Amino acid sequence: MYAVRKLAAFTKPYLLWVLLAPVLMLLEVAMDLLQPRMMERIIDQGIAQGSMPIVLQTGLLMLGLAIVGAFGGMANGVFAVKAVQGFGADLRAALFRQVQALSFGNLDELETGQLITRLTNDVTQVQNALYTLLRILIRAPLLLVGSLIMAVITSPQLTFIPLILIPLLLAAVIWIIARATPMYTGVQQRLDALNEVMQENLAGARVVKAFVRAQHERDRFGATNDDLVDQTVRVARMTAVTMPMMMLVMNLGVAAVLWYGGIRITEGQMQVGQIVAFINYLMITLFSLLMVSMLVIQIARAQASATRIQEVLDSRPLIRNKPNALTTFTPQGRVAFEHVTFGYGSEDGHNGNGNGHGPAAASLLPDGGEMAHAVLKDVSFVAEPGATVALVGTTGSGKSSLVHLIPRFYDVNAGRVTIDGVDVRDVDEQELRRRIGVALQETVLFSGTIRDNIRYGRPDATDEEVIAAAKMAQAHDFVLSFPDGYDTMVGQRGVNLSGGQKQRLAVARALLIQPSVLILDDSTSSVDMETEALIQEALKEFMAGRTSFVIAQRISSVLHADKILVLDDGQLVAEGTHAELLKSSPIYREICESQLGSGDKAHG
């Protein structure tokens, strides 16, 4: 119940509604409990004695009590909805803020499908439980206790019947709840899996069609969907026993009352009105017990969802600012790696569980601790202000991992990364990233106009600055080719743009923030060589005095870099200019010859 107690804090802004709802429910319960006594009076004092005034007066009184009770019930519903919807909105907002605050390593562990389920279905389950609580938590126990008391007052001779039936029902309900509670966790986990399959399929719809794998995807979705159905049916089958069992017990109770009460009536010890009232109270008692059981089942399901929600809320960003972190930082751009070792899923918990890079051998940290999946091992180099540094190497050699350490998407496990001699861990996270422009390997555009996407990192940028950045990224001409120009709406995930167009917009977005350090992580791979050459030419003047890191699959893109770093299996095996590396690095020479041939072209 830890998670439920923690989430209860989100009801504080709506405490007035939370308190008013049960109070109004008290009014409805009181009116409901008086109705059977009114029926008893009509039967025994009105109908039995032929007194129509008593029948009319008591009937009108019952109508008045019903109206008052209906008002209490409706008002309870209104306030319950206000509290529940506000609670749900605040909880979703808190979850979204938490996800935004998490580091890359956290997001590696919490998969997108799971996060979507927790932000939607799990929050809905908790909302439903809260609504049920506000509607039933007061009503059911009060009806249970109140109807028992009224039943005793009405006919003490028949009290033994509910006292026999209630313990039997409670034992059965407790058994059902104990079996069903862990099964609800399984339902939510299978819903996670279904969302993940659906998300992958929708995101990769073109790949599915291109490789004619629609049937495979239908089978995969069908298997996951069937698994969810099977688990849901198992839970439903378990809980479905509750209602028929309650009805059976209720009917047995009514039969017992009629049999035993009928004997007492014939003996002159009881009246018909008493029997009718007692049967009503018995039904109220058993129905309230049913409501309590449904409430507990609802809470059990919500508990599973609350635990999953709290897991996200309890997650702490792996990248956090130091208490005395620098909040003002204007670097010149000297970037240094000093004996940097880094791995995903390290045992000290500083990083995630991998992000798709190729596996690397386990490595030992300087303090002797073991690191899993080391992708960078004892890397040291210096990039002077204004220099263009290119990174080359085979897939999985650690190029993207290296540049991700500069804006501190991940923290190093050993060594340090500095900018102008300042450890990046000593700088406020947001302040650091404001000084670093990044065009990531995977281009991500957001719903909105092209203009909004370019100035995503600088919402206050002028139109002239947006156009200037677009021109440097060679995006201006194709943007103007659209009827709406910079006001053209970008479709979901940039579906109405080509891969090269999306990459150029991402480069323009990185340039617009006027960074001290620019990182282009294979961000022109979908751009033709002529356009890429134009981008490089435009960047020469812009990057004067700024440091840039370029990852490119085409060697022709990095021939004129001031420094080229050659990575192999997470190690820096060579560095220098193109001409220097051709003489000193067999790996670099092999890469050049594989792309440019072995003639003069490869030798610059």
Task: Briefly characterize the structure.
It contains 20 helices and 14 strands. With 604 residues, the protein is of the alpha/beta class.
Rg, nearest Å: 35 Å
- Order of strands across the widest beta sheet? 8-11-12-5-13-14
CATH superfamily of the domain at 2-314: ABC transporter type 1, transmembrane domain
**Helix/strand/pairing category:** alpha/beta
- CATH level 1 class label of the domain at 2-314: Mainly Alpha
SS strand fraction: 5-15%
Helix segment count? 20
Poorly predicted tracts of residues = 347-370
Structure report:
With 604 residues, the chain is an alpha/beta fold. Among the domains are: 2-314, ABC transporter transmembrane region fold (Up-down Bundle), CATH 1.20.1560.10; 437-514, Rossmann fold. The protein contains 20 helices and 14 strands. It has helices spanning 2-7, 15-47, 52-101, 104-109, 112-137, 139-154, 160-203, 205-210, 214-240, 242-266, 272-314, 399-404, 429-434, 450-454, 463-472, 476-480, 499-512, 529-542, 578-584, 586-596, and strands at 335-343, 363-364, 370-371, 374-383, 388-393, 414-419, 422-423, 436-439, 448-449, 489-490, 517-521, 547-551, 563-568, 571-576. Strands 8-11-12-5-13-14 form a 6-stranded mixed sheet. A 4-stranded antiparallel sheet has the order 4-1-6-7, with no helix packed on it. A two-stranded antiparallel ribbon has the order 2-3. Strand 11 (517-521), helix 18 (529-542) and strand 12 (547-551) form a beta-alpha-beta unit. Helix 7 (160-203) runs parallel beside helix 11 (272-314), helix 10 packs antiparallel against helix 11 and helix 15 crosses helix 17 (499-512). It is elongated and about 120 Å long.
